[in-house]
Amino acid sequence: MVRSIEMILGLDPMNRFDALADPITTCFTDTLDLTPYHAVPSNIPLDERNPAGTAMNRDDRFWLEKTRELDWSHIDAPDPYWLNRIIWYSIPKGASPYPGRPGEQPGQAVDLD
Question: Helix (H, G, I), strand (E, B), or coil: what is residue 18?
Fold first, then answer.
């Protein structure tokens, strides 16, 4: 992607990795395509952060509560132990167990501030 952006802007590669990268060429052509497109409206309410409590199962409610318990006061404030598990659950919805590391515990993160 970076190589393609460099080529579009007429820039030289920043490093050898950019120079050796294959640019994205399949989505670009030399001829202008003025075919109109039709936008498809979203069928998901974008202003709703979490589903209503009635639409959730027991596991969804557990992870919602864990999310609300985290400290969101600044960017690195949430405990990575719980945040990683919340994100993991949100993708396959509990279909596969979290690949935890031995000895992991909540609150082990070091605050470098």
Answer: helix
H, E, C per residue of 39-92: CCCCCCCCCCCCCCHHHCCHHHHHHHHHHHHCCCCCCCCCCHHHHHHHHHHHCC
SS3 content of the chain, % helix, strand, coil (to 5): 35, 0, 65
The pair of three-digit structure tokens given for residue 45, joined into one six-digit string: 């309410």
* pTM for the predicted model, two decimal places: 0.52
Phi, psi of 65 (to 5 degrees): -65, -40
- The Cα-based distances of 91 to 48, 63, 86, 94 in angstroms read 18, 12, 9, 8
Q: Please, which pLDDT band fits residue 95 given cuts at 50, 70 and 90?
A: confident
pLDDT average, residue stretch 27-37 = 87
Residue pLDDT, tens place only, 34-75 = 999 899 998 877 777 665 556 778 888 899 899 999 999 998
